[in-house]
Design goal:
Blueprint (H helix, E strand, L loop, with lengths): L1 E3 L2 E5 L6 E5 L27 E3 L5 E4 L8 E5 L5 E6 L5 E7 L5 E8 L31 H8 L8 H12 L7 E5 L1 H4 L12 E2 L7 H7 L36 H9 L3 E5 L10 H17 L3 E5 L10 H18 L3 E2 L1 H4 L23 E2 L9 H25 L1
Parallel strand pairs: 10-12, 11-15, 12-13, 13-14
Antiparallel strand pairs: 1-2, 2-3, 4-7, 5-6, 7-8, 8-9
Length: 400
């Protein structure tokens, strides 16, 4: 692989196939036509979309994230109207009116704090595509503000469609996904529950078609997701499964040969931050991204959550910023799990302040708002959202 003059050339040594990707350097966000000032813009639709109540006291913010200004509180039991949502539905804009239909409260709350019944379906709620996920100017730390700037979910680039097409020519399976990473990825609570036929999506009904497509062949454990695995070890044949992998085959190449996936979810960091410098981490992640692209597989990279009381917190911020820069360079999808998890108790982490907290359920359960309390549930939800984006992008390409 070489990178020069803004072009990336991928070469597969076996097939000698090449694909040129022209980097547009558009980053992750669409250009906004205005600078957000923290004011709520009036909703154009005159009628309420859905009516709900909160089961616990919820902070109301001026935008869909905890870096926006707090504007009040929504008390339990008060009837409100859900008028729009952010891209995922994790945040919804609500309005409360008095008997004269005057709006007395207007702002954004975490949707998981609302009582979820069958009437609340995000497929029917308008999406606000103009507000950013955060307001970094309210963040005191320059490094953290920069990390907040990366959107929670990416826009799937045309370059990734080219990678998908390359993968199809190499024999990859369009509906197969896998995961690569350390113990956080190896957890049987991550991605594996997606394939469980028991499913409680709650209001996230719009994700069902993509889920059906990417789970029809099932999701199994990955030989490239193991406890203690690092960005070095994933390339080391000594870490390969001796029963499934070939002699001198790395865990990464073994997994890609066995599964022939179209999409691979990559997350390293909690181990690496304790054993290497930022520059070495960047080098290894770059190699991992390039190796995945060379197989014609779309790499979906996740930042990782970190606890402020943890010894390596600031190193974790810098490692995550390296990931943001790499995904901008290669136009690969990024899940900003670090930013999304800031609203969760203990930032979505378990007692060790390293591993994501699990719900204990072996199936998806979003009818009771698990995504706002358990880090793995949130990670699964955001991963499904990216699958949905890729699924929709590919369908658009096919239809065109």
């Amino acid at each position: 692989m070489n990178n020069s003059n803004g072009r990336l050339t991928l070469q597969n040594n076996t097939s000698m196939l090449k694909v040129l990707i022209v980097f547009k350097q558009i980053g992750f966000c669409i250009a906004l036509p205005f600078l957000f000032t923290g004011l709520i813009t009036p909703l154009l639709a005159p009628s309420p979309i859905s009516v709900a109540t909160a089961f616990r006291r919820a902070v109301i913010y001026a935008g869909p994230g905890d870096t926006f200004q707090q504007t009040g509180f929504l008390n339990p039991g008060l009837e409100i109207r859900v008028v729009e949502r952010n891209q995922t539905g994790i945040w919804v804009r609500i309005q409360r009116v008095d008997e004269a239909e005057n709006v007395v409260q207007d702002g954004w709350v975490i949707s998981a704090y609302l009582n979820r019944d069958t009437d609340l379906q995000f497929s029917t709620i308008p999406v606000n595509s103009t507000l950013l996920d955060s307001q970094p100017s309210n963040v005191n730390s320059q490094s953290m503000a920069k990390l907040y700037q990366a959107p929670i979910l990416p826009i799937i680039s045309d370059e990734m469609i080219e990678i998908f097409n390359l993968g199809q020519s190499l024999g990859n399976q369009s509906h197969v996904i896998t995961k690569v990473g350390d113990s956080l990825s190896a957890s049987n609570q991550y991605l594996i529950p997606l394939a469980n036929t028991r499913r409680e999506l709650g209001p996230y009904d719009y994700l069902a078609p993509a889920l059906d497509f990417y789970t029809r062949a099932g999701i199994t454990d990955s030989v490239a997701a193991r406890i203690g695995l690092s960005t070095y070890a994933v390339f080391d044949p000594l870490w390969a499964d001796k029963e499934q992998c070939q002699p001198n085959e790395s865990p990464l190449n073994c997994e890609y040969r066995l599964k022939k996936p179209a999409i691979s979810f990559l997350m390293f960091g909690p181990n690496d931050v304790r054993s290497m410098t930022e520059d070495k981490y960047e080098t290894q992640m770059r190699s991992l991204i390039e190796a995945t692209l060379a197989h014609g597989i779309i790499p979906v990279i996740s930042t990782f959550s970190a606890h402020p009381d943890e010894e390596f917190f600031w190193q974790s911020i810098n490692f995550n910023l390296k990931l943001v820069a790499l995904t901008e360079e290669y136009q690969t999808p990024l899940i900003n799990l670090w930013a999304a998890a800031r609203i969760l108790p203990d930032f979505g982490l378990d007692q060790d302040k390293v591993h994501l907290k699990v719900s204990g359920f072996d199936y998806l359960k979003y009818d009771t708002g698990h995504e706002a309390f358990y880090g793995v549930s949130l990670h699964n939800l955001l991963s499904i959202c990216v699958l949905n984006q890729i699924y929709e992008k590919l369908n658009v390409e096919v239809n065109e």
